[in-house]
């Protein structure tokens, strides 16, 4: 099968489509033919070889050259113990190596929302689960709360605004000028354009600050926190060695001794949460916001655009259509 691989760390030029062995599902796994995938900052870190990513995947070159996490596609085969899925089912989920024609997966998979295309469904897993777990599990979001989402218009932020609204919160979005209208369209009640105004000097107070990609210090954030507020950190600026962790460490240290808590978390794919996201999409409360769809052979372009740091919603890679295109071009080449 064809897969996106990187045999070295670097800029998106290191990405190649290569022929790799098609995986075989274990007893508890499902083999999925991937129709669409989407790209995330975690893959950017894996590709460029951020220091902490190298600790997990080889200091000098990637031990595991595969890339990708999000997929939407069709079940091709199931392991002996699998009862919930059958060949032909449309599914979506998260699994390392999803920028490929096939993935095998056990837990992080659910039936696709009936109203979603493969491209829309592939936009959901990482960003949706991060937004869901950040707001619900770590932020303990409640109806009627004032919630501010700092970094509201990218992958995670676009889901966070909609999920916070689905939980009945009053939502303030923080983004740049070009994304103000988009944040409103996602359902934000209030929007701050961070290029023009600083939400931490607005005088408004929040129960929950979801710091998706913020740059603020603890003293900035503290100004807008209610006495029992929570700050949940998903990410931050990409510093060279430890990426967003420098922002996390600064906020954690700043919050020492404060009544309010700052929590960093790493999202985790579960069947239950994939089902929850499926229901949110099917009910129309959450609409995956896809800014761009790239063909498989332009995955490097998709990563380059994501790497600029100002994507609107999600950037999707159409894996299956490219396969058709590749087959067509292969046939055309054979005919020459
Ligand atoms: N903890 C986890 O498990 C987890 C999982 C997934 C992602 N993350 C992290 O979450 C962060 C966002 O990921 P993503 O997929 O949403 O990235 P993304 O799609 O690239 O979106 C980044 C967003 O950040 C906004 N932004 C840039 N500079 C900003 C600033 N100074 N203040 C406020 N917002 C700013 C951009 O909005 P404008 O274009 O309007 O500037 C853009 O919408 C990343 O740091 C990523 O590593 C964490």
How does this structure look, described?
The protein is of the alpha/beta class. The protein folds into two domains: 2-124 and 288-335, Quinone Oxidoreductase, Chain A, domain 1; 127-264, NAD(P)-binding Rossmann-like Domain (Rossmann fold, 3-Layer(aba) Sandwich), CATH 3.40.50. Helices cover 32% and strands 25% of the residues. Strands 3, 4, 5, 6, 7, 14 and 15 form a seven-stranded mixed β-sheet that branches. The protein is globular, with a radius of gyration of 20 Å. The two termini are 24 Å apart. Mean pLDDT is 94; it is low at 322-336. The structure holds NADP nicotinamide-adenine-dinucleotide phosphate (NAP). Residues 40-41, 126-127, 130, 150-151, 153-157, 174-176, 179, 194, 212-215, 234-236, 244, 265-267, 306, 309-311 line the site of NADP nicotinamide-adenine-dinucleotide phosphate.
Quick one: biggest sheet? 7 strands, mixed
Poorly predicted residue ranges: 322-336
Q: Please write the string of helix (H) and strand (E) elements.
A: EEEHHEEEEHHEHEHEEHEHEHEHEH
Count of helical segments?
A: 11
Indicate the mean pLDDT.
Answer: 94
Q: Would you tell me the structural class of the helices and strands?
A: alpha/beta
């Amino acid at each position: 099968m064809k897969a996106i691989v990187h045999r070295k760390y670097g800029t998106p030029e290191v990405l190649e489509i290569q022929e790799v062995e098609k995986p075989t599902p274990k007893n508890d796994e499902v083999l999925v033919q991937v129709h669409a995938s989407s790209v995330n900052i975690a893959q950017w870190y894996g590709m460029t070889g951020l220091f902490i990513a190298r600790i997990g995947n080889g200091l000098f070159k990637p031990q595991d050259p595969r890339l990708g996490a999000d997929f939407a596609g069709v079940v091709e085969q199931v392991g002996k113990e699998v009862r919930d899925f059958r060949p032909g089912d449309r599914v979506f989920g998260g699994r390392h190596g999803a920028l490929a024609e096939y993935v095998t997966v056990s837990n992080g998979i659910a039936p696709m929302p009936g109203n979603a295309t493969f491209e829309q469904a592939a936009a959901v897993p990482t960003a949706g689960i991060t937004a869901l777990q950040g707001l619900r599990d770590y932020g303990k979001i409640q109806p009627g709360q004032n919630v501010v989402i700092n970094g509201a218009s990218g992958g995670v932020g676009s889901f966070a605004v909609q999920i916070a609204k689905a939980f009945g919160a009053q939502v303030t979005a923080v983004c740049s000028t070009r994304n103000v209208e988009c944040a409103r369209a996602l359902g934000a009640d209030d929007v701050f354009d961070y290029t023009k105004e600083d939400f931490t000097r607005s005088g408004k107070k929040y129960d929950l600050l979801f710091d998706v990609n913020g740059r603020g210090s603890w003293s900035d954030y503290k100004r807008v926190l209610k006495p029992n507020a929570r700050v949940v950190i998903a990410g931050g600026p990409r510093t060279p060695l430890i990426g967003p962790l420098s922002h996390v460490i600064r906020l954690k240290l700043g919050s020492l001794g404060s009544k309010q808590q700052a929590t960093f978390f790493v999202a985790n794919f579960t069947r239950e949460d994939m089902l929850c996201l499926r229901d949110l999409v099917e009910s129309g409360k959450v609409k995956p916001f896809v800014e761009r769809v790239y063909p498989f052979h332009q995955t490097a372009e998709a990563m380059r655009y994501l790497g600029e740091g100002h994507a609107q919603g999600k950037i999707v890679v159409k894996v299956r259509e490219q396969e058709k295109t590749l087959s067509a071009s292969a046939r055309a080449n054979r005919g020459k």
